[in-house]
Each structure stands twice: as C-alpha cells, then as structure tokens.
Amino acid sequence: xxxxxxxxxxxxxxxxxxxxxxxxxxxxxxxxxxxxxxxxxxxxxxxxxxxxxxxxxxxxxxxxxxxxxxxxxxxxxxxxxxxxxxxxxxxxxxxxxxxxxxxxxxxxxxxxxxxxxxxxxxxxxxxxxxxxxxxxxxxxxxxxxxxxxxxxxxxxxxxxxxxxxxxxxxxxxxxxxxxxxxxxxxxxxxxxxxxxxxxxxxxxxxxxxxxxxxxxxxxxxxxxxxxxxxxxxxxxxxxxxxxxxxxxxxxxxxxxxxxxxxxxxxxxxxxxxxxxxxxxxxxxxxxxxxxxxxxxxxxxxxxxxxxxxxxxxxxxxxxxxxxxxxxxxxxxxxxxxxxxxxxxxxxxxxxxxxxxxxxxxxxxxxxxxxxxxxxxxxxxxxxxxxxxxxxxxxxxxxxxxxxxxxxxxxxxxxxxxxxxxxxxxxxxxxxxxxxxxxxxxxxxxxxxxxxxxxx
Length: 455
What we know:
alpha/beta, 21 strands, globular, eight-stranded parallel β-sheet
C-alpha cells in the first residue's frame, strides 16, 4: 500500500529539515523517496509533520511497579499506552529489566497497547565480581553479558550500582571501588563495541567518567543534590557525555497510601518506590536542561509516579517557554529556551540514537514510517500546539486521527539486540546458583510477545 503525506511543514532535526514544505511517501511501513502511484493521500497543508517520539526512560514494567499501580500510583497499561500515543509517541523503553525478572518485565510491557517496547538489562556486578577483578577474564565477561543481553530480550545494558560492596566482612576481599569499576567497564565496552547506561548519582558525577564516550548518564535530575553535583554534570555534558534529563516537579505528589513500598532487588541498597529527591534537585535539573539544550542531552522524566505522562506537556512548556517557567517557578531559571528544533532533537533524534535504533527518530528514506502530525497555528507559541497529536502513524498505520485513538489493535513489537553470543563458564556458574533459575531468561517463546531484532 502506498501513502503520501502531502504539503506538510516538515521538522526533522537529524535531516536538517526545519519547516520545509514537502511530501512524504510511505510504502510497506517505511519512508521512500517517491511513489508514482499511491492508494491514500493525507492532506497535511498547514500542519507540522515530525518523526514520532521515543521515550528513553519509562519505568513502568520493572519489579515493584505493579505495587504502585495497585495503590493508584500509576495508570493502567491501557491508559499508559493511550496517553503516550496522544502525545505522538510510538516507542517506550523500560530501564530496569534484571536477570531474575526478565519474563515478568516482558509480560508487563506486552500488556501496554499501541507502543513498541524495549528494555535495558540491568546488571548486578556482584554476580561477576571475582571475574571483574582479573583483567584476563574481561573478554569472557563481555561474552557473558552479550549472551545475557540477547537471551533476556534486552536492547541495551545498564548498571544501577557501578561498584561492588558487601556488608559482611567475609566478602570484603570481593569489593571493587567506583573508580575501578568505571575503568573495568570501559575495557569491557571496548571489547563489546557498545555503550552502557549508568544511573546518575552524586558520587558518579564527582568521580567523572572515562573519555571513551561509551557511557550514558541516565536520569540526571535526582542526582543533582547540591551545586557541586550540578557543576560536575555541566562539565560532563560539555565534554560530550550523553545523558537524559530526569526532570521532576518541585515537590513530590501525595502518595495516597501509607503502605511501605521498599523492595529488595538483590542490590546493595533496596529500592524505595516512594523515594523523594532533594527538594532543590528539580530546579537544578531544569536549569541544567536549559543550559545544555545543545548538548547530547535527551528528554526524560525521572519518575512516572511523580511526573505521569499526562504532565509531559507541562515539562515541555518549562523547557520551551520562559513565561511558563516564570508562572510556575517564580523565575526564568535561564535566559534561553528550547526551540522546536531543540525539543524535537531531545525527544526524537537523541532517544533513537541512544537506544541504537537507526531507523527511528527521523523521516529520511529507509526510516520506519512513525510520523506525528500536529497543528501549527504560530511558531511564536508552538509548545501549545504540540500538547496533543492530530494524527499519529505507526509503520504507516493510523493510530490517532483527529486527536482520537482510532486503531487500538495496531501491531506492536518488543525490540531486542541480537548478539549471537554463546554461553560460557560464567553463564554456567550463574545457572548453578541455587537462588537463580535459568527459566527466567527464556522469554523468547512467549506467545504474547512479537519479537523484533533491532536493526
């Protein structure tokens, strides 16, 4: 089936299209150069045509999120998928898939309609501590991680605790400092020719990062606990380190429940699902995002409990409109604001780049035809027009039309990284642990999930 989007005002930062009037041709779910015959034409004259957005950080399927949903802290999967679609998104990424919870996370993601999904495999370095302490083992560790990434259905690698610590004195000989871990990770990533996402912390910002460009700082906002951390983050972004914002409102919302929601994820520190950031961190996060809008900084919200998808238009207005910042924060925070080009780059181009999806986030020939169309009454007040999507195409199929969901059964897939790695003795050791079940990794045969190898 051939489709043309006619006469749209096209904005695509990665293609350097900044308001060009042009036709987009779509065939077999992808953008093509030209079609001599089409079966359908969409009149987009006077409308803004952009790539669909990708959510780089959507913590909705990790272990413990169902507890939040049970107590009203998160929307239902259906509400979540529809909220993203109405804003112009087609892909969301879960940051916290672990070895024991791989099956669980993928089933949770499969329950979210309309959205393509992916997840980061979050590694617990204590599972590999003995091997990490010997440089001669790093090639085998790299092979083990490559195997686990594919067989857990992960798209990228992530480390939430970039250190190895134990509370028991008996295991003190196995500890590895933050600085040593960063050096070890850099060597492993060189072998894998890959990047890794590190959850930002004040300690990590202070330690600095190797200059290899193989590290992505995830969720900066909550880590900005003092002016020193803010300055360190500025320097890292200025040096070219990729990161995402981790924006937050100025105060946590009411939890609506006194039930404690602290869960043990087999890490050094338990995860507090009701945790609140430093009171000044949200202001610092927004200030950082404004000053570093030209850097390799992608949009993200730190916590969908405090900043649900329905609040994204407000976050966008803070980035793009100084009047909105003054009304809400009482000050401008920075003399600069995001242009439409900056905002599209942070919500389209950069997320696709950080996730390693080269056919997303742009509209050049060969791209998957994920297209968002918005009203554009005036460029002087464009953020208001992008609060809702007039039309959304996913692989050329209409999902939203005239601001409403029109196709609740559009095809969706979970994207994973195909590595071709084979199990080795490190994997055998993991399987031999009495508390670990290899069956948790067998997620591919799941009949509820359509798997798609990342390009």
